[in-house]
Write a structure and sequence with these properties.
Length: about 300
Amino acid sequence: MPKISVAKGLSVARGLATIKGLWRTIASTGLLVLLPAGAAVHANTSDTIGSTIQLSAAQASASATTSSIASTTAPSVKDAQTRAVEALRWQLSDFFTAEDSGSVRVRMPGEPPLRAPSEASVQLELRRLPARLKDCSAPQLSLNAARSDRHTPGLKRLQLLCANGQQHIVSVRMERFAWRLSTPQPLASGTPLAPARLTPVLTPLGKLRGNGFESAAALSGFEVRRRLRAGEVITRNSVRAIPLVNFGDTVTYQVSGTGFSMQRSARALEAGALDERIRIELAPGDWVRARVIGPRRVAP
């Protein structure tokens, strides 16, 4: 069996260690170095491979930097469109904000439908995006002069003006949600509307016939005109002022002037609430119109 000197054994061990170190470097950098068949691996070869690895890493870093600069200095068309959409969203939100309307939410084409809100707010739905929106800088909205009330629910046609002179027409469906009074229990016709019978509910005003009532004080002196269902929002058409004079009542007809005041009895020919004008009969066949001024009291 041949003998191997200690010096040669150390040399072989160093060579194996060098090869393992190179493979670790190659594996960590993802580079593949090809050497000619039978070529000896020594210190010079290690330096060459190390230089190659450093050069390739520097090239990769330079390539990544160039790509980053290119993406920063030359934004894609998609990025420009996204910025334009967000600018239009902000303009719509700012345009339809009112002191009493709450927050404004905007739905762009392709986005999920807006859910029912939990607070007073405005919801806007844009039907379609204007053509060449990505080219519109510093957009400004103005309302069509024929529809000057921007806070009334319904379809709005807006004019979009751009800094570069472009003009677009934007169609927006607007819905306002506000608190309005309703009745938690069914109410029969003729029931006085006391505050205990009322509760506020969040209501889409565009689907409400009439504007409804915001405070119980506004319904003081009113009664139900027709039967109301539980949860129904109270509107002007569903209430009437409580009559202070009914048909056939004996009323006091009061006439006042400079230095005199007189009153006499009459018979009501009509029912009437406060400040309403009704017919009264002073004598058989003699009737006049009078204004209701209190319970069973009228005046010219």
